[in-house]
Amino acid sequence: MGDIVIAMPKHEDANRIRDAIKRSGLWEEIVICSSGAETLRIIENQDVSLVICMKSLGDMRYEELANYISSRVNILLLTKDATLAPFSSSIVKLLIPFRPSDLIASVKTLLPSSYYERRKNTKPKQNRSPEEKKILDKAKGILMERNLMTEPEAFRYIQKSSMDAGRTLIESAQMIITMSNFDL
Question: d(Cα 48, Cα 89) in Å, to the nearest integer?
């Protein structure tokens, strides 16, 4: 399944962390657990490199979890307790609240370089439907023709405008197509 396990009592919090990691393009396969016991079962059956967890998991604290798992598995401890000193070199503390960029930097540091290099050299999957691809290609074509952009420049323009406006890539592409129909 995955090499990163997010162990948190609240599923919503775990989903936010997972989504931030996936958005960064750093990792795609992430397992979410809500208890220490479940986390230990996953670690036993998979090749896990990193566990992201809170100080308490309901059925056990992070210290107990760390004692049960191998030292090759790193732990990213998310905590509000600034005075907490991790007792092991395989545990790194990240204070809550944190910026997504701090989370990603911590994850990159704790993942083995072989995993990170492997992920960096593979292209992320594109899960767009044929209709969405057609819309995106048409918008890129309009930008390339009217603004003399290359295809990567046109894609980057659509991507940036969608991020700036808080829209999806396809919504921004549709907007470009619609606006081109009104040009005189």
Answer: 17
Q: Are 21 and 78 in contact (CB under 8 A)?
A: no
**List of residues 6+ apart from 28 with CB closer than 8 A:** 22, 119, 124, 125
What is the reported pLDDT for 174? 92
CA dist 81 and 10 (Å) reads: 18
The predicted model scores a pTM of 0.58
CATH number of 130-182: 1.10.10.10
Contact 105, 98 (CB under 8 A): no
CA distances from 113 to 9, 178, 183 (A): 29, 45, 50
Band (165; pLDDT cuts 50, 70, 90): confident
pLDDT digits (tens, 9 = 90+) for 100-157: 888 888 888 887 765 555 555 554 555 778 899 999 999 999 999 988 888 888 888 8
Long-range contacts from 119-128, C-beta under 8 angstroms, 24+ separation: 119/25, 119/26, 119/27, 119/28, 124/25, 124/28, 125/28, 128/170
Amino acid 137: pLDDT: 93
Q: Which string of DSSP letters, residue by residue, matches 90-128?
A: TEEEEESS--HHHHHHHHHHHS-HHHHHHHHTSPPPP--
Q: What is the CATH number of domain 4-120?
A: 3.40.50.2300
Three-class SS of residue 2?
coil
